[in-house]
Amino acid sequence: MSPRRLNETERRDGVRQAVGPHPMPLDEIARAAGLNPAQCSAVARELELAGEALSYPGGLLARAV
């Protein structure tokens, strides 16, 4: 049996919960949120555009404080 697919809101909430105040690699965030790297990257860009996250060189992401 395959795992249940997350909807857009669940993906966004999962990434929000996984992102901390210190920069961390997107692959770690993806694992913590239960997403594949492409899904996590897309959500990260949405959060960045909304002013909720900051991206850093090397594929790092942090919560905008």
Detailed description of the structure:
A 3-stranded antiparallel β-sheet has the order 1-3-2. It starts with 7 loop residues before the first helix and ends with a strand. It has 65 residues and is of the alpha+beta class. The protein is 49% helix and 15% strand. The longest helix is centred in the middle third of the chain and has 13 residues, at 37-49. The protein contains 3 helices and 3 strands, in the order αβααββ. It has one domain: Arc Repressor Mutant, subunit A. α1 (8-18) crosses α3 (37-49).
Distance between the termini: 40 Å
Strand tally is 3
Major β-sheet annotation: 3 strands, antiparallel
* Count of helical stretches: 3
Shape: globular
Query: According to CATH, what is the topology?
Result: Arc Repressor Mutant, subunit A
Whole-number tally of structural domains: 1
Strand content: 15-25%
The run of helices and strands is HEHHEE
As a whole number of angstroms, the C-alpha radius of gyration is: 11 Å
Oligomer: single chain
Residue runs with pLDDT of under 50 for 5 or more positions: none
Q: CATH superfamily, please?
A: Winged helix-like DNA-binding domain superfamily/Winged helix DNA-binding domain
Question: What is the strand arrangement across the widest sheet?
Answer: 1-3-2
Output mean pLDDT.
93
CATH architecture assignment? Orthogonal Bundle
Helix content: 40-55%
Structural class: alpha+beta
- What is the CATH class name? Mainly Alpha
